[in-house]
Description:
Blueprint: E1 21-24, E2 28-34, E3 37-42, E4 47-52, E5 57-60, H1 69-76, E6 81-84, H2 90-93, E7 101-104, H3 109-113, E8 120-123, E9 129-131, E10 136-141, E11 150-154, E12 159-163, E13 170-172, H4 181-196, E14 201-204, H5 216-230, E15 238-239, E16 254-258, E17 261-265
Amino acid sequence: MKKIKLIGLLWISCFYAYSQEVFKNEELSISRLEKNVYVVETSDKTTMYIIEGNHKSVLIDTGTKCRALDSIVGLITQKPLMVIATHAHPDHIGNIGYFREIYIHPADNELLKSYNYKGKVNYLYVGDVIDLGGTRLEVDLMPGHTPGSIILIDRAEAIAYTGDAFGSGQVWMQLKPHIPMAMYYESCKRMLTWMDKGITKIYCGHYPHVKRALDKAYMLTMTALARRLGEEDTEGAVPAPYAKVGAMGATNPMMLSDGAVAIVYDPEHIN
């Protein structure tokens, strides 16, 4: 294994601007995003988030193939670590084998089984609160991209960590198992309710594609697209052949978009 090169860990936040890179190798880079939040961006544009509380830390998602991920995370935080998967697709659980236990919603258990994970699987449910000490994350279920897609809400900082629940510019709904678009529309409306209660920033599952927090305008557009597809209004949709993902995806996926926001879907399984 090549020696890990550490590029100036930020221990005293007042001396550094957020988003400054603190670690980089050929597979990933880590930058400080908020006062106690780091974003991990991989070379293939998957994303993880490290949140450090006063007593514990959380790793949200584990990316694809990143060598020694546990050791790299250990350079950022030495506090007891909880590993949470927002959902059980390979680009979000690719490195769970480095960790003895993970947390996930049970609705994605069938997807997780295909990975053959040998560690302990713990389940998170709607309303669960993860107390890191000074930082509290609330769990909500947002089915659509997968049956068990969850988001983590930090009310105090007005942040939602959403994985792929609402995409990173576009959400992929063409994958199996298919979720009715009407159900996804309900998830979008629930996310807007969170934003009406004060959440202003969405940190999505593929941050390298957007390089910013998504906002309420994004969610309003996504919700409108989901409503249209829930009503099977596909006017203006175009083929999205790049979104085929082997046996997981539709044969002929379509995409409905509004500006830079889009939903990719299976025309044979809208509802």
